[in-house]
Amino acid sequence: MTPFSHKACCSGKEILLAGEEYDVLKRYVRNPNTVLSRPEIAKHVWNNIFDNFTNIVDVYVNYLRKKVDADYPSELIHTVLGQGYILRKHMKHLFHFMFLTIFLTVLGALPATAGSFEKISKPPVSERWFGIYVDNDRVGYYRLKIEETSDGYRMEGDGNVHIIVMGISKVAAAHEIYLVGKNLSLRSLDVEQTINGIHSHLYGKVGDEVVRIKSESNGKTTERLLKFKGEIFPGPALNIYPMMRDIVFGKSYKILTFDPEEVRVKEVEVSVLGEEKAGDGSFSLKLRNSLYPFVNNDIWMDGHGNTIFESVRDGLVTTKAEDSKVLEKFVTNRATAK
User: How is domain 7-106 classified at the CATH fold level?
Assistant: First the structure.
């Protein structure tokens, strides 16, 4: 199995897998002849608690069977009623399984130090623009500006999106300002947002492991205390966080972040997957985080900590860095339509 291109090789036959298919198969290859339950697979692949009302694990096992067991007289992946699934390694499966194991072991099962990427000492102090796309149609934009302050950084973001995915519509606009320390930990926030017609303005300060939030919406003001342990980081810092630590392939970080839309603190897991070559021939660092339940959010970064490209659910929704001039007309039209 090749971890960064999502390829597997079965008895000499190369198989291209989607991100979640690869992760499910990797879990079984590492645990042959062991029954793995649906909740266990959901936890390790989607970084989430299993929902008994979803059949996502069954769907992806079915996808795998069609690819991995194709052209072979007997199956590798078997159903164990009431328990889950098992990858059985009998003698008749020996060569079929052997190639999976060899590729998994040689090409990325163990963490490796990143070759072309070094730890950065600070985030990229710059202004970046991004286009947001669904099926190659631009549906929104986001601008991120990072400035250095005397004791840390100021992260300012503006965004607007009108998106319809799987029958669910979302219209949102936001302006957010986060003041962070040298290590990107959150100190204060100021977020003004409108989501599906509901406007709100959040102010917050962080201290003594508490986020003190004041929220203004529909003429009412409320205050809340959000407790946490350790440090908390704003959304724009999540992709940069691993690059300011030791970059090790296969390593994951569990990070607390503030979600302004849900007005809560939540844990996000960010994993360093490895290097991949970009379209221009340069290398990018591939990350994955668990911001969205049951789908992968994959991110490609340059060596300075800039986001190049993001992909949710294997390309269903993508975000890519673009020249501000390219987005200027789109942004103007969105502002006029408000």
Answer: Arc Repressor Mutant, subunit A (1.10.10)
